[in-house]
Amino acid sequence: MKYIEKLHYITHDIPHLSHIEQAQLACEAGAKWIQYRCLSKSDEELLQDINAIAEICDDWGTTLIVTDHVHLNGKADIQGFHIENMDADFIALRKLVGNDITLGGSVNTVENLIRLVRAGADYVGYGPFAETETKPNNYTLLGIEGYQHMVGALKAQAISIPVLAVGGIKIYDVEALMQAGIYGIAVSGALNFADDFIEAYQDFYRVVKESAVN
């Protein structure tokens, strides 16, 4: 089983910090897992960002995951990909990237989560937990009850995979989410728009670690 960190930081297109600056701050804060999420640039621009962020991650021993863009596999020092398309063919994707690359995906239902597990995903982002401006969508908000239901459903079928809560999560939500039995948390806006990015990351990290039940 591949190593999956319990706190994932996701970069985003924001006016006051570039993706590279976001990655630098996250690594300085102690981040061990960065998901580069940029859906607005050309391949050339993406690779410029990714190569710069990969160097930063290498200096800090941080895993670099890229959102979508699997066609860039092998063109930069990318450890894995996160697929946001909930209907993506993960069997084909796994064949495309090979077994050494970490492959995660976004899901909103237990049924789709189980489909990704059986298709070879290494971890799953399950959400949205609450409303989020980072990634607007019309999916059902899960709330704590949604995660409790999901954890129970996986246990009933003896299915084990790292599941991370994602979508509009604030620091005060983390303890209840972790106590629900999920593996970890993915955050973006709660750090990008914090008064102190590094302090906010470290607060999240501390609560995730202290509240983990698995």
Please provide a brief summary of the model.
The chain is an alpha/beta fold. The chain contains eight helices and eight strands, in the order βαβαββαβαβαβαβαα.
Could you give the order of the helices and strands?
Answer: EHEHEEHEHEHEHEHH
Radius of gyration (CA) equals 16 Å
**Largest sheet, strands/sense/barrel:** 8 strands, parallel, barrel
Number of helices, counting only DSSP H or I runs of 4 residues or more: 8
User: Domains counted in the coordinates: how many?
Assistant: 1
| Intertermini distance | 15 Å
Question: Main sheet: which strands, in order across?
Answer: 1-2-3-4-5-6-7-8
Structural class: alpha/beta
CATH superfamily: Aldolase class I
**CATH C-level:** Alpha Beta
**What's the rounded overall pLDDT mean?**
94
The count of DSSP E runs of length 2 or more, i.e. the number of strands, is 8
CATH architecture: Alpha-Beta Barrel
CATH names the topology as TIM Barrel
What percentage of amino acids are in beta strands?
15-25%
* Unreliable runs: none
Can you tell me the overall shape? globular
Helicity level: 40-55%
Question: Could you characterize the architecture of this molecule?
Answer:
This protein has helices spanning 19-29, 43-60, 90-97, 110-119, 143-156, 174-179, 189-192, 197-211, and strands at residues 7-10, 33-36, 63-67, 80-83, 102-107, 123-126, 163-166, 184-187. By secondary structure, the protein is an alpha/beta fold. It has one domain (7-211): TIM Barrel, CATH 3.20.20.70. It has an eight-stranded parallel barrel, surrounded by five helices. Helix 3 links the parallel strand 4 (80-83) and strand 5 (102-107). Helix 1 runs parallel beside helix 2 (43-60) and helix 1 (19-29) crosses helix 8 (197-211). The radius of gyration is 16 Å and the shape is globular.
